[in-house]
Amino acid sequence: QEIVSGESEEESNGVNLMEFSDEILLHILSYVPCTDLVLNVRRTCRKLATLCLDKSLTHTVLLQKDYKVNKDKVKQLMRDIGKEIYQLNMAGCYWLPSSTIDHVTRCKNLVKLNLSGCHITSLRLSKMLSTLQHLHSLAIDVNPGFDASQLSSECKATLSRVSELKQTLYTPSYGVVPCCTSLEKLLLYFEILDRSREGFMLSGQLMVGESNVPHYQNLRVFYARLAPGYVNQEVVRLYLAVLSDRTPENLHAFLISAPGSFAETGATKNLLDSMARNVRLDALQLPKAWINGSGLLQHLKFNNPFYFSFSRCTLSGGHLIQRVINGGKDLKSLTSLNLSGCVHCLAPESLFRKAEDDIDSSILESLVVSCCNLRHLNLSAAHHHSSESIGNHLCQLLSRLKHLLSLALPVCSITDVAANVEKPPTVSKLVPQTFGRKVRIGIQTYPRNLADQANQKIESSVFWALMGSLRYLETLEIIGSSFSSAMPRNEPAIRNSLPPCVRAQSVGDSEVAAISQVTYLQSLTLAQLPNILTGSGLIHIGLQCQHLRTLSLANLGMMGKVVYMSALMDMLKHCKCLRDLRLEQPYFCAGAQFFQALSHCSSLQRLCIVSRSGTLQSDAVMSFMANCLEVIMCHMFMGESLTVCKSLQQSIVRSFQADRPALNVVIFPLLHEDLTEVIRDVPMRHLDEITLFKSRVAEEPPNLWW
């Protein structure tokens, strides 16, 4: 309707959209959600009616973040173009009733189907898969009550042809893995809780009737990601037991992401020994206990590796260069490297080294030269302190990586060594890092005007130069090496945080302003920057980074007061593309002025605020929800009473749920003992992508799943 109504105005200006070639119009229409194309746009005129049904637009249907889609729209969509759909992604459509899945049976030609996060029973899955004879790629959840014996012979025949399977487990089970006899890619996400809702301890033993053995003989990719908990570890060992008996000859990617301690056993040792003898890998990630103190990396063979993750390992820089990068040889194939929490990875050895000691710049230089095509690099959660040697600062060496798309660094690594030497040691006292009463700070010693700051510090900053060299960077994380979120996964909220690194004490507004040079930035995370005094750099980011879609700020400046609130509100007025906002700051006041500024973010979809002793104004929240029609997630963990939180949550749901089918609202006291019970009901899409704080750079191999 907008297109038709605008034709007269366009014709008066000499431009008519319908005069463009079909190729240009198809390219424009490719940015429109498929539901809008089929159910709305194609009804505007005859030409668009034809173009909207072009195979290039109906071949792949993506509903995973179409938060406005409902059961009726899906039903109509499948009825109109079901036979034309070859790839259907409904991942994370938690709001759709399970009966919606019945309409997928119209898509007889489906080759790829993603139903992760969707409600589906064993019987519905069986009925649906029985009709999809061309399916080769499948993603599903396995929930309590899943029964593989309910799968029909036709369903099992379809599964026998599936070569790619992604399975998220919420209960101990093999799921459909034993039925998939042609597996080449297996992705497993273990989200099993150690305790039931009633408080009973769960067992990692598989359910009765699940003794079938998985078929791994054709496997090329094995990936397992474990949530915290011993049950997840028990279940993944059952999946690995088959691999330890016979390692697939074509295996080229073996990845296990496990938090905390995941001990090596005799079976896993046999598996790794077999891999060292029989396969050449292109991607590798192992639990830290499997690598630390072993000579495994010395024996593993690599072909053309594109992804390595040694997160939280005690791997030294010497071993990294000698055993992984082959003494500095050409590794142009490597595009993604995760060294998060690898505290000694830039030092020649780790035996007598302290985590805070200076890095060996020659190791980083060898890494940069050998892996010159890196696109994703994570160096967070460690103290990477540069020495005073001219030209060997970490930022100067990283500026050679011209292809970087995402980068994660610890705060202490970006500080200018010369500036640190010149600064008096009293800086840290000016910005107290403990909770307490307001402390007067000598603001007059710091320039309030951003231009003055640039003249004094930015022009000679190594971090400024790094940001200027990475013009096409899309994701940036600057996280304090000792930062930990107040809201961990399966534990009570953390009440106290560790102080920032001494080297990080000078990092503040001017460094934040330097980020504004990255004009194509889409995702930004800043955590534990102690020297934020006004937040003035945020305004520059809001003005210059017009593509910013995700913003996460945590513990900036002094902890007893939100010193950057005024600048944040000014910044938000310019963030027209912002979709996700996460704020974690003690004493945060979510009041009328804040929500009025946030209302300028017309594209905002998800909001999460975590604040010890934080306050909120219920009327302001309701007004914000009424003004921002795209918001479908509102998570607030504050210092308010349970009564206030429940009342506001109920009011939001009652007022907006009908018009926003995907609406998910959680408002709860941060320090309440039942917080973990509330968290377990949050849809995995929101929990994993925004509610829980974590570094996401190089977390998984690129293009792991479509």
Automatic annotation (TrEMBL):
Transmembrane spans: none
InterPro entries listed in its UniProt record: F-box-like_dom_sf, F-box_dom, FBXL18_F-box, FBXL18_LRR, LRR_dom_sf
Stored Gene3D superfamilies: 1.20.1280.50, Ribonuclease Inhibitor
GO biological process terms, semicolon-separated: SCF-dependent proteasomal ubiquitin-dependent protein catabolic process
GO cellular component: SCF ubiquitin ligase complex
Residue intervals of the F-box domain: 14-61
PANTHER family found in the cross-reference section: F-BOX AND LEUCINE-RICH REPEAT PROTEIN 18, F-BOX/TPR REPEAT PROTEIN POF3
Protein name stated in the entry: F-box/LRR-repeat protein 18
Species, as recorded: Nestor notabilis (Kea)
Lineage of the species this protein comes from: Eukaryota, Metazoa, Chordata, Craniata, Vertebrata
